[in-house]
């Protein structure tokens, strides 16, 4: 998304990037291999489903795996293992989503310290560094970067949503493309002389069998249009689509707004993303369920060529 008001500020942002790189210092190295999964965009590229998919691939290879995450917006500053039965406000929404999917997650602003905590449990495994492309303080053995068609037409923050210029893709070891965009983007990469290995992923929205037929659809993610379009493709036309800010923290006001919309439009329930669903505390769920059941739609990713991914992940 391009924002004309931000154009005059792009040079300042670009200068800040240069200073960040200059003062990054020598990255620290953990004992286990580190696979960073990141993107150029500030959000919405689909990193969490890819992290989940890679954890699945490593698990099927018999490899011990964990995720190291900053835990964006979390209330706690502690470096700790995520409790799947805990509170998303404490651990962060994406770490909680991963933990509830059965992935071991360690959170903390200092990802090196989080990695040491993971390694202290014993064994030998692989760390997945969530949203790690711009995190220079931890050495990595493989840099995996997601790229979308929207990214290649975007601008740097704050005029757009790119955290780094497109030329930063030269640092990537692997570039992940969505199946429906792969041919177009592979041609784009080739034209610019970018020779990183390419992994193609197939994405699908997984919906529960007991989905409401006339739901209120809501989410707090960076690119909500993809979620809403996925519902329509799956055969569900929401009564209304409500998009909150990315990483929305839900409170009474938001829940009352959703419940009122459902009653007014005679909806028979709610559908949201897995990332949003983990942020609904017990009292908030109870309040919302007075207007209908809540169901979560999960974006699932599979590697089109899993064997190629396995070969690259053998350290």
CATH level-4 homologous superfamily of the largest domain: P-loop containing nucleotide triphosphate hydrolases
* Classification by helices and strands: alpha/beta
Pattern of helices and strands: HEHEEHHEHEEHEHEEHEHEHHEH
Q: Tell me which CATH architecture of the largest domain applies here.
A: 3-Layer(aba) Sandwich
Count of discrete structural domains: 2
User: How many alpha or pi helices?
Assistant: 12
Q: Which fold does the CATH topology of the largest domain refer to? A: Rossmann fold
Strands ordered across the widest β-sheet: 3-4-2-5-1-6-7-8-12-11-9-10
Ranges where pLDDT stays below 50 over 5 or more residues in a row are none
Average pLDDT reading: 94
What is the terminal-to-terminal distance? 38 Å
Quaternary structure classification: single chain
Give the CATH level 1 class of the largest domain: Alpha Beta
The rounded Rg comes to 20 Å
What portion of residues is helical? 25-40%
Number of strands: 12
Specify the biggest β-sheet: 12 strands, mixed
Q: How much strand content do the residues show? A: 15-25%
Shape: globular
Quick recap:
By secondary structure, this protein is α/β, with parallel strands linked by helices. The protein has twelve helices and twelve strands.
Topology:
Blueprint (H helix, E strand, L loop, with lengths): L9 H13 L11 E6 L7 H14 L3 E6 L10 E2 L6 H4 L1 H8 L3 E4 L3 H9 L5 E6 L11 E5 L2 H4 L21 E5 L3 H10 L5 E10 L9 E4 L4 H10 L6 E4 L8 H14 L4 E4 H4 L4 H7 L5 E10 L2 H7 L3
Parallel strand pairs: 1-5, 1-6, 2-4, 2-5, 6-7, 7-8, 9-10, 9-11, 11-12
Antiparallel strand pairs: 3-4, 8-12
């Amino acid at each position: 998304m391009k924002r004309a008001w931000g154009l005059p500020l792009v040079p300042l942002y670009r200068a800040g990037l240069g200073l960040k790189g200059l003062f990054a210092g020598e990255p620290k190295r953990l004992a286990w291999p580190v696979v960073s999964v990141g993107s150029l965009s500030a959000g919405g590229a689909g990193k969490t489903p890819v992290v989940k998919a890679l954890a699945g691939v490593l698990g099927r290879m018999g490899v011990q795996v964990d995720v190291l995450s900053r835990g964006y917006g979390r209330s706690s500053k502690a470096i700790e293992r995520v409790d799947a039965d805990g509170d998303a406000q404490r651990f962060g929404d994406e770490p909680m989503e991963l933990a509830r999917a059965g992935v071991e997650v360690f959170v903390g602003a200092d990802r090196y310290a989080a990695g040491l905590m993971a390694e202290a449990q014993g064994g030998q495994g692989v760390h997945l560094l969530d949203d790690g492309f711009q995190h220079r303080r931890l050495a990595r053995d493989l840099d995996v970067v997601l790229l979308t068609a929207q990214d290649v037409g975007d601008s740097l923050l704050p005029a757009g949503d790119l955290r780094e210029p497109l030329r930063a893709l030269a640092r990537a070891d692997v570039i992940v493309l969505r199946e429906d965009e792969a041919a177009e983007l592979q041609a784009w990469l080739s034209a610019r002389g970018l020779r990183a290995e390419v992994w193609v992923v197939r994405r699908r929205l997984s919906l529960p069998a007991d989905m409401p037929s006339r739901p209120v659809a809501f989410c707090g993610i960076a690119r909500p249009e993809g979620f809403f379009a996925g519902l329509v493709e799956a055969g569900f036309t929401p009564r209304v689509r409500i998009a909150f800010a990315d990483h929305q923290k839900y409170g009474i006001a938001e829940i009352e707004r959703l419940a009122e919309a459902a009653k007014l439009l005679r909806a028979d329930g709610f559908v949201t993303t897995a990332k949003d669903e983990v942020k609904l505390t017990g009292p908030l769920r109870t309040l919302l369920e007075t207007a209908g059941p809540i169901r979560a739609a999960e974006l699932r990713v599979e590697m089109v060529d899993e064997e190629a991914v396995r070969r690259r992940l053998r350290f």
